[in-house]
Amino acid sequence: MISEAGSLHFGEVGNLAFIPPPLVRVVVEMLKDKGGRPFLTEANTLYMAGALICE
In the chain, what is the straight-line distance between the N-terminal and C-terminal CA atoms, in Å? Predict the structure, then answer.
């Protein structure tokens, strides 16, 4: 059996630049249907002095 890791950022408050969870579910289910064992891992961002907010 094959395991696939999906590395993604789960989003943060005010950020819309992430993959919507319903789309992630579709991909995970497709991999499972093919006999895979998918799992997700966070690919977070470390801000040195906090996030910059542009106004």
Answer: 49
Spell out the per-residue pLDDT of the chain, length 55, in tens: 667 787 777 767 777 777 888 998 999 999 899 998 998 887 776 666 655 666 6
Domain segments of the chain as ranges: 3-42
Residue among 8, 35, 42 nearest 23 (CA): 8
Tell me the one-letter amino acid at 29: E
Please state, in angstroms and as integers, the Cα–Cα distance from residue 25 to each residue in 20, 39, 50, following that order.
Answer: 9, 11, 31
**Taking the mean position of all CA atoms in its chain, how far away is CA 32?**
17
What pLDDT does residue 33 have? Answer: 93
